Amino acid sequence: MQPGSAEALLADLDLADEDVTGVIDHLDRLPVDERPTDLMASVQPDELVLTDGQDEATMALPEGRRYVSIAPFVDETHDCFYHSLTTCLGELSGKDVDVVITDSATGKTVVDDSTTTFDNGFVGFWVPSDITGTIEITAEGKTGTTEFSTRSDGPTCVTDLELQ
Hints:
The chain is mainly β. Helices cover 10% and strands 37% of the residues.
């Protein structure tokens, strides 16, 4: 983290003392109408980039971990590559979902969780870096599957998982 800058950008949100996982978790779960309009927070493969339009700061992600944010959809989606914690909106807000994330190389399940989509329509998970695999989500009797990658060239925002 750059000395002082990330803390200053996060001070108004009372997040200056949080580590990067706490900042990401808080911002992704924040109700849409409470999101800061003057802060952009973009999850890159190795870091969180914060900017208020004038100053920019970065916070390194934990070694060996990647954050993947997923917006399952039925009717509408948007193109996205790096998840924006303050502006990305998915279709299915507050929906109960079952999520299974599998590493294709090992066949190992890295996430098997029943949760509720955040107010922004996403669910987010910390998964191992440098893997590829599949994400399967079931909600309201519909299931969708998509491939993902947590390699350095992989997206942190998954918006192509259609529930059918």
